[in-house]
Fold each of these.
Amino acid sequence: MADASDRTCFENLYMFSGDYPHMKGGRNPLGRFNAPLEGFEGGVLDRFLADNMAELIGERS
């Protein structure tokens, strides 16, 4: 994932993925990614957690 200091052009590039049911992501994978994304404008966290995948599989345009 891009360093939080690099706030340009990555909101459409990355998406969250888990390793369910395995614990390789740790005990709190969402918390691990939410903290670096705090303070970003608009729906960056929404895009990372859901919208980018929905767009990839054709659920949204």
Amino acid sequence: MKKISVLLGLFGILAIMTAGFAGVKSPKSPSASTRKPMTRFALEDKDKDSKISLKEFTAYNRKLKNANAVFKAKDKDNDGYLTEEEFNAK
């Protein structure tokens, strides 16, 4: 009888402890649905300096035969880099 009382007591303590943690949620990483998708500019900006160099542009656009000309046409201030504004301009 004493063993049963001890076991019931242990189960009771375990139940109380488990119930206390029931409302605690573990931290989660952002799910795919809450993360912002990467923009094309972010994908091409490999070194993450908020501008795209000719080297980055041509590496990403290897299949584009006139990549150099497209880059130069988009580089309105002729600084050798595309800002996000220049990159997205039509």
Amino acid sequence: MSNMAENESELVQTVAKMRKWQKEYFKTRDKEALKNSKYWEKRVDHLLEKPNTLFS
């Protein structure tokens, strides 16, 4: 698999996890769900900030 495809796959998987925890938080308002949601959101932000690694 190419580096670009791997990066896209990682991004898609990370966004899916983020959305899962966001939905769980808004459904339950559980503090652990909020903590996990924030963690995955930071991971997504980190992946999007990587210079020249996504979609290049």
Amino acid sequence: MYNISRKSTNLKTGDEIIYKTKLGTKKYIVYEKQIIASTDWSVIENTNENIVTLITCIENDASSRLCVRAKEI
């Protein structure tokens, strides 16, 4: 099993994410990495683009989350 939460901390703008399922493969490019409040869910609102949003905990900081967003290429 792949631990996306642990690996997402290493992602940076311009990195590629490959998302594979039984239905096919899609590629995304990271365009944003930011720290958000644990209560901020605005980053997962609907958009007109196909976007992957990864949100994970930050070690020793219960009130914040790391948010990485990537657009389909």
